[in-house]
Amino acid sequence: MHIFSGILVQEETELMSCLPTVPPHRNVFYTPLLMNQRFSEHVGDLKYPKLHFGILKSPEGAEVVWSSPIDVNSDMESFVSIPGCMDIKVKVKSIAMVTHITIEAISKAEVSAKEVRSRIRTERKEVSLSDSAINQEDEAIIKALETAVMSSLPQTGTSERKPPKRKTDLVIGLHCHHVCMVLQDETSSREEMSEILQVSVDHLFLSHIPSSGSSRSNKTLSDQDKHQCVSLCLGSLQVDNQLYFAKGLYDFPVIFMGQAITEFPEVDGMNIMEKLAILKSVGLCHLQGVMERDCLGHRLVKSLEISVAPITSNVDDKFVYRILKEFDILIPTSLSYPPPNTQNVKKLPRSFRSTSLVMSAPVKIEHLCIQQISMLLSVHASLKLFIASDRTPLAFGKFERRKVVTTSYHLIRSLAMHYASGALFRAGMLISFE
């Protein structure tokens, strides 16, 4: 533990009873202790601490010779010297939000100071590399990492070579010209059935397109190179208060709609990519997510982008309470008692179980982007005082984060703070009291 300029610095080795080691020609998974403790506090911009590489001089690990610190937050290749022992070559590459660090032992003749300086100058002067050289280097890294992972897993079954599995790329394009959903009230009156809410969508388009992160000639793409792109486009979306037209209830006939009336071009006969490009450019809302797998086969979100055209929203608190009441009626009710528990089992509190589930399944998104949103907002709140804010223009800035590894609670909280602060500062001066 050291103190520099009034800042307390603690080495992670002081928190461990046994140092993590890497056997020759093998691989290990490691996450710094500090990141496990505080991973949910910061949403986005995940930063790894600098790493030191050391060599055990004794089998008991009593004496370790450490190298200088290495920054592993970006892809790079560097020569590192371990004083009095050896020189190593460290290669860092991030694939599917897993930072792969490859360590190779080299001789001192291979990495002289003059050679290192010349390599640094060459890398600075070089503007572009050929695609073939980059692809071959990336392919060698990925192949070596996959081989290391497979060698570390226990071998099961016979050693007979199985034939390669055939994989099919699934391409889906679903285009609905009009979709309408209606919420009806069947319990208030036995004589009539009234409509409460109507949701109308024009030109709903859903697509699923497999893509590859990088093209390699005459090579079969591995699972880590394949991405699954899912897109959802809504040409127009309108939410109507049906009770306003039938019985004149509540203040607003339209709850949600786009500000502009869009004329959609004819897209029949086009392929999936052409339809997606046209509806994305003229539609009200577009959501696109790219999925990928890491080296262990876990699925994660590589990128998530949401864009919304200018919209109009009208909120009446009485109507919101009525909708919540109707949804509460739709929740199914159990008609039987749970079976008696014959064993004396003590269950954990529900809050503890829910927190454990959230912490064990963090949200991992490599790139999250919600484009700028413009809104005309009208709010009527019938409290002890009638509070109204009619057609207040709101402009929410872009919400963008990279390397998001956090819990769903902290991500939702960060989004709520971002949009709530924008709404309060822009709408606070336009509220009228009656």
Q: SS-based structural class?
A: alpha+beta
How much helix, percentage-wise, in residues?
10-25%
Q: Which quaternary structure do these chains form?
A: single chain
Q: Quickly count the domains.
A: 2
Number of beta strands: 19
Largest sheet: 12 strands, mixed
Amino-to-carboxy terminus distance: 62 Å
Q: Which band does the percent of strand residues land in?
A: 35-45%
- The number of helical runs is 8
Point out poorly predicted stretches.
1-5, 125-132, 213-221, 428-434
Cα-based radius of gyration, to the nearest Å: 29 Å
Mean pLDDT: 77
* Order of helical and strand elements: EEHEEEEEHHEEEHEHEEEHHEEEEHE
Shape: elongated
Would you kindly provide a brief summary of this structure?
The chain has eight helices and 19 strands. It has 434 residues and is α+β, with helices and mostly antiparallel strands. A hairpin with a 7-residue loop joins strand 3 (54-56) and strand 4.
Question: Please, could you describe this protein's structure?
Answer:
- Helix content is 24%, strand content 36%.
- With 434 residues, it is α+β, with helices and mostly antiparallel strands.
- A hairpin with an 8-residue loop joins strand 8 and strand 9 (194-212).
- It has eight helices and 19 strands.
- The relative contact order is 0.09.
- The longest helix is centred in the N-terminal third of the chain and has 22 residues, at 131-152.
- Mean pLDDT is 77; it is low at 1-5, 125-132, 213-221 and 428-434.
- The chain folds into two domains: 51-147, no CATH class; 172-214 and 223-329 and 353-433, no CATH class.
- The strands form four sheets. Strands 8, 9, 10, 11, 12, 13, 14, 15, 16, 17, 18 and 19 form a twelve-stranded mixed β-sheet that branches.
